[in-house]
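Quick one: structure tokens for this chain, please?
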Amino acid sequence: MSIDGLIYGLEQIYSILIIVYVLMSWFPNARESFIGNFLAKIVEPYLSIFRRFIPSIGGMIDISPIVALFCLRFIAAGLIAVLGFIGL
């Protein structure tokens, strides 16, 4: 497995974790479960960066996970490009 394949794989796994965490908000008490708490410890530090700058729309719709996923993809692609440029 190459380094860029590893970076892409990690980016995919983290994206899935973010999506699952966001979808858990649709189910009552899902975030209070063991899996919800586990995902919160992994995902919430990253999402909180974006929640500081992006307000909720109408007080209910949080678009910060969408921006976070976009930035994660951008960071992974940039890292792969930089590593490819220096020959790794």
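The chain is about 70% helix and 0% strand.
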